[in-house]
Specification:
The structure holds 2 protein chains of 2 kinds. By secondary structure, chain A is α+β, with helices and mostly antiparallel strands. Chain A is built from 9 helices and 20 strands. Classes of the chains: A alpha+beta, B alpha+beta. Strand 3 of chain A pairs parallel with strand 2 of chain B.
């Protein structure tokens, strides 16, 4: 393997080293403005090396898989001024097997992908010919190699498949965008169901419902939950914890959310977007409870951050970011939540997320796709509305959690969740 | 590395499409980042790759690659994809055929500066923030440079070589008191060499001061306000509130959007002028040609409140019967160019800041930008911080100021514009359209006063 050549070359000077190589072939077809617009084939390569030289870390990467000497030399050069290593590369450690390759992906042809897109497009046009539809279907196959100087050595092969549809509906100067899609490492995606979901979202948005400024209960759809999860992603990142910029630092064992709220990072779910046997540092993926019954259990660490913080890696290298997040189901159906709401909103898509101060939990976002509930019924879409609050306060103010978790984008499995009260400002 | 013009031209000869182009890029990059007292990472990379675009009967085929050895195969792949897609008539604007080999001019060439010097320069900024005050919890202070060499050839005889250097430094301070965590940022980017990231000490201190000051600032109270937008945020406002709507790929095959965006329609009062200028000297989004060989230029989008122009690629221009404007841009070789802004600004008016503020009883002076987003009609943009305006005077500092608007009434609500355009210094961020992020875009403007704008927040 080429990674062994990289390691061998680096070890002439370095005390330890880690190398990766990736090759990717992908195919995508794309529909724009109600018609097939483009088809693309893409070939990518990349390799990189990280070295520890005299106790300091250096790294380099390149797209040229023949440039073994160059990439090693640049990594060694950067190590001369690099950051002190607070870790050692791991030795061989047998991880848990997880499915990341589906042989059904490779044989899918471009014309078949076009047909999938066309079928979705026709469904939406049948519902409403005024909607301008875009769609995309894509697949890819990835081959990776990994090795380090402690004897870890493996190669893997993974696939991915994804599709999505987006419609734009213009009435007068009212411009409404609704999209829905899904992708993971498996061919099996029901594109008809994806299109029907988009249609359902359009149907609920046929009328515009007025909303007054004030405090209202808010149901976040699984997609909408990102409004709250962005702060958690930053707050549970071991690097932010170690540096003290996370408001959760030093609070393991503390109750920070409603006791019905539990969230787990799970990098071992078959075919999920963030799944793999090992992380980017050759450490086995694992299942890491983050919040259990409202109580903080663990943070996410990679090798270097764990070394600095005096703890162990959780298999989240490099960067201490989540793999797949799973939020525990509650006992209320979405229909019941709506029925039990006298006046409130449903939030699915927002604009401006992350532009405030998300690490503190604060959010202030425009509700790009949301619905109004009155007397237990969804009466239409809201627009020109800002939603604001604090994610950590909201998690202590949960009214109901849905009884059925749904996949969002291949790496989040979450139920609907209703927060008792959040501030909305309307035009 | 040398790519000969003949290799691209030979490969283009293998095409049986109606139009074909090839773009190859060779990029070298180095970076470093401090988090807190320690260097978090340092390294360098090299990448080489390209894209072939082929157009047959109105359908596009793309082939992107890192292995440039078999360009003929890539051309064949792109043509085959295009033939599968195309079922209509090709419309693609001609531009003057160009032969141009451009060289970047760098005052201080960052490729000749050792990584150790880059590290030492940035470390000084990091130390300033850490030492500013004991409320400073941590930092993120970093540097990055890249040098892109581009070779472009198309089947209508254009051949261009371009060099696009970029350097940036950012200093972010995080201050904390209990669970109250606040941040301050300062950044700069540019294409003229390493010197632009030198001497950033005062700015680093400003970032630290802002973070600490924000600890004692209350969150803004949500509601409708009269706001004065400072020049650094006015560019983001122009970009999100209107710029994206003027990108013709949202319009050219969409009859309803054509009705909404009909030239001659009034979008603002007589004082409003919005311009995109890809030829602006020293602009962050400036290039001589866009990524399909069309010359960049100054394009008025709104003149005296009236829609007078829009941004085009060669395809959108042909389909709308208008002229290419030099706005087809691609962030990297992995992507086909799409219609993008370059340097976008609201032009100066004739009011003074004093005149703008003096009759505001309760409002907000919103300053500096964190970002923005649009869904064409509705948009958001976020200030780094703001000051309440009370009885015509700048009053207390407030945080978490996110504004939202609706293009069809917010632009009409602009009632005063100050008399000097200031360009934002840039930084690591940029525009994120179509997952091609971050594309360097220039953002500029004067002070802009808007009536009745919705600000998010608790009440």
């Amino acid at each position: 393997m080429i990674v062994n050549q990289l390691i061998e070359k680096a070890m002439k000077k370095a005390q330890s080293a880690q190398a990766w190589l990736g090759q990717n072939e992908s195919t995508d077809v794309s529909f724009e403005n109600n018609r097939l617009k483009s088809a693309e084939s893409s070939q990518r390569t990349g390799m990189g090396i990280k070295v520890i030289l005299n106790g300091k870390v250096g790294s380099s990467h390149t797209t040229d898989v023949n440039d073994v000497d160059g990439v090693v030399n640049r990594a060694l050069e950067s190590a001369e001024f690099g950051s002190p290593a607070h870790f050692e590369f791991p030795g061989p450690n047998e991880g848990t097997n997880v499915k990341i390759y589906d042989e059904a992906v490779l044989p899918v042809t471009k014309p078949e992908m076009v047909q999938i897109g066309e079928e979705m497009l026709i469904l939406v046009k049948d519902y409403n010919p005024d909607i301008i539809v875009s769609a995309n279907v894509g697949k890819s196959i990835h081959n990776g190699e990994f090795a380090n100087s402690k004897g870890v050595e493996f190669s893997n092969e993974s696939t991915s498949f994804g599709l999505g549809i987006e419609g734009q509906w213009i009435r007068g100067t009212d411009i409404l965008w609704i999209g829905h899609g899904f992708g993971w490492k498996k061919r099996e995606i029901d594109h008809v169901k994806i299109a029907k979901k988009a249609i359902e979202l359009f149907k609920m948005a046929e009328k515009i419902a007025p909303l007054k400024s004030g405090n209202v209960p808010v149901i976040f759809t699984p997609e909408g939950l990102y409004v709250l999860l962005l702060s958690l992603n930053l707050g549970f990142n071991g690097k932010n914890v170690f540096l003290g910029s996370s408001p959760l630092a030093g609070r393991i064992g503390e109750k920070i959310a409603d006791e019905r709220f539990s969230v787990t990072d799970n990098g071992l779910i078959d075919y999920a977007g963030g799944s793999d046997k090992y992380d980017g540092e050759g450490v086995p993926h694992q299942i890491t409870p983050l919040i259990e019954n409202g109580v903080i259990k663990n943070f996410l660490y990679d090798l270097d951050t764990a070394g600095r913080a005096g703890t162990k890696t959780t298999g989240h290298g490099v960067g201490c970011n989540p793999t797949n997040l799973v939020i525990a189901e509650g006992d209320t159906s979405f229909e019941e939540m709506v029925k039990n709401t006298k006046e409130g909103i449903i939030v699915r898509d927002v604009m401006g997320l992350g532009q405030g101060n998300p690490i503190s939990g604060e959010f202030s976002v425009n509700v790009q796709l949301g619905y109004k509930i009155e007397n237990g019924e969804i009466i239409g879409r809201v627009k020109d509305v800002m939603l604001a609050g604090n994610a950590y306060d909201a998690l202590n103010n949960i009214m109901a959690i849905g009884n059925k978790a749904e996949w969002v984008g291949g790496s989040l499995l979450a139920p609907y969740m209703q927060i008792a009260s959040l501030s909305v400002v309307a035009k | 590395m040398i790519i000969l013009r003949e290799r691209l031209e030979d490969a283009l000869k293998k095409s049986d499409a109606e139009y074909t182009d090839i773009r190859i890029e060779d990029v070298t990059n180095s970076w470093l980042n401090f988090r807190g007292k320690e260097l978090d990472n340092i390294g360098s990379s090299k990448s080489l790759g390209g894209i072939v675009r082929a157009l047959v009967k109105g359908g596009w085929g793309y082939s992107t690659f890192n292995d440039i050895n078999d360009l003929e195969k890539r051309v064949k792949d792109a043509c085959e994809s295009a033939r599968m897609v195309g079922k209509e008539e090709t419309k693609f604007a001609s531009v003057e055929s160009i032969f141009d080999e451009m060289k970047a001019t760098l005052e201080k060439d960052f490729r000749e500066i050792p990584l150790s010097t880059k590290k030492d320069t940035v470390e000084e900024y990091n130390k300033i923030i850490i030492g500013y005050n004991k409320k400073i919890q941590t930092t993120s202070v970093g540097y990055s440079d890249s040098f892109r060499k581009i070779w472009y050839a198309d089947s209508r005889g254009t051949y261009i070589e371009d060099e696009r250097p970029n350097t940036f430094v950012y200093t972010a301070a995080t201050a904390r008191e209990g669970s109250n965590v606040q941040q301050g940022f300062e950044a700069i980017s540019g294409k003229n060499g390493f010197q632009i990231v030198e001497g950033f000490h005062k700015k680093a201190e400003t970032a630290a001061r802002k973070a600490v000051d924000l600890l004692s600032a209350p969150p803004v109270t949500g509601g409708k306000y009269t706001v004065i937008i400072d020049p650094k945020l006015a560019g983001v406002f122009a970009h999100e509130a209107f710029g994206h709507l003027s990108e013709s790929d949202f319009v050219y095959e969409n009859e309803r959007m054509k009705e909404i965006m009909v030239l001659g329609k009034r979008f603002g009062s007589d004082i409003l002028n919005i311009i995109d200028d890809g030829s602006l000297p020293d602009g962050i989004g400036t290039h001589k040609y866009d990524d399909e060989g069309a010359k960049t230029k100054k394009n008025y989008l709104i003149k005296d409140g009236i829609l007078v122009g829009r941004l085009h690629s060669r395809e959108t221009a042909a389909k709308m019967g208008e002229q290419p404007t030099g706005n087809a841009r691609s962030i990297r070789y992995e992507f086909p160019p799409i219609v993008r802004m370059t340097n976008t600004y609201i032009d100066k008016g004739n009011s003074s800041f004093e005149d703008m503020i003096k009759d505001i009883k309760l409002g907000i002076y919103v300053i500096d930008s964190i970002g923005g987003q649009t869904s064409m009609e509705m948009f958001t943009f976020s200030a780094a911080y703001g000051y309440m305006i009370r009885d015509g005077k700048v009053a207390e500092l407030v945080r978490d100021v996110v504004l939202t608007g609706n293009v069809f009434d917010t632009l009409m609500n602009i009632d005063m514009i100050s008399d000097e355009v200031i360009w934002s210094p840039g930084g690591p961020g940029g525009c994120g359209k179509g997952s091609q992020s971050p594309l360097p875009v220039g953002l500029g403007g004067p002070h802009v006063r808007v009536q009745n704008i919705v600000v998010g927040g608790r009440q």
